Amino acid sequence: xxxxxxxxxxxxxxxxxxxxxxxxxxxxxxxxxxxxxxxxxxxxxxxxxxxxxxxxxxxxxxxxxxxxxxxxxxxxxxxxxxxxxxxxxxxxxxxxxxxxxxxxxxxxxxxxxxxxxxxxxxxxxxxxxxxxxxxxxxxxxxxxxxxxxxxxxxxxxxxxxxxxxxxxxxxxxxxxxxxxxxxxxxxxxxxxxxxxxxxxx
Length: 201
Hints:
Largest sheet: 6 strands, antiparallel
Oligomer: single chain
Protein name: Antibiotic biosynthesis monooxygenase
Organism: Microbacterium awajiense
Distance between the termini: 24 Å
Keywords: Membrane, Monooxygenase, Oxidoreductase, Transmembrane, Transmembrane helix
Number of helices: 5
GO molecular function, one term: monooxygenase activity
Radius of gyration: 19 Å
CATH class of the largest domain: Alpha Beta
């Protein structure tokens, strides 16, 4: 379960009608634009599993559970979901908190697949693998942070006068620039590449 007062990330897997890709692209972007207008919004994005795949993934992040629920229970989101019902169906939803959210979610909400033989209705709770050992998490974070920090340090060196700034200002600038890059791009990519190793054992 997500803890109150902590940022929470929601990852949603959807199946999209391949014949309506253009509509789905505009629809997904409209959803992220709508979410961005809500209090506590910290970022969002979406990707396709592959060029020929009907699986699309959307991720958004809010400051805490109350602000997330403000978006999820809003009329705007209900209207948006209804507008895409003809070509988009939710398959799976995961809520994650903290840095360990990149490595696991203790409980995931899996939505019923209409094509399934199951007679269950509505969302059901399904456990997913627990987080890998902390030493593996540390290795994964370092593998992402070291090259990112190295590249950033090299690039910042080309800024005239940057090397002459006080150490505190240089570190502050670098961390402000690198934190969103690590959170939204590097860590998701590293953990995806290392997933077999992270989950082994």
